[in-house]
Write a structure and sequence with these properties.
Layout (H helix, E strand, L loop, with lengths): L1 E3 L2 E4 L2 E7 L6 E2 L7 E5 L11 E6 L2 E5 L1 E3 L2 E11 L5 E13 L2 E6 L5 H10 L3 H4 L1 E8 L5 E20 L2 E9 L2 E4 L2
Antiparallel strand pairs: 1-2, 2-3, 3-4, 3-5, 6-7, 6-12, 8-11, 9-10, 11-14, 12-13, 13-14, 13-15
Amino acid sequence: MKHIAGLTLALGLVSITSTAAAGGLPVNSSLGSSSYSANIDSSSDPASGMVFELQAGEFHVYFSNCTLGSETEVTEHKVVSQKGREDIVQKIPGRLKMNSVVCMKALDSGADLWAWRQMIIEGKLREARKSGSLIAYDYTMAPIATWSFFNGWPSSVSLGNKDHKLVEIVVLAVEGILRDR
């Protein structure tokens, strides 16, 4: 068993647990902490055991799956020849759109996502809007990629079922995304 700054690695099992400031006791709930566990087969592709950490202000949550990105709309421009024929259709970049960040994790006792979402429900957009980062870790918990996001807020938090397990899904509306690493 190996301990690394709040992580426990044992026989292919990764467990991430925040600790309370008073007494160093493990914390699975309360604002600003969360836990995540995943079974990882380290003999396969390192990306198969990825863990994502979302950091946004006082919120730190771990996820098993996240998607993010941006896209540019494609505008078609027809070029008319001197003879009046439409010989070429050029495709040029249009409006830039930031996709929402969508993350999923196993249901646990942490209520951070729901507390963050409650700020939006109560109309506290200024407080809820946060810039932060999303860090991807491989199965050894080494960071392999980092993205920054700007002015993100939870547009949706839901409970679902995946492979007969309860999962929480958060959708963050963001105004910008930048890959840092």
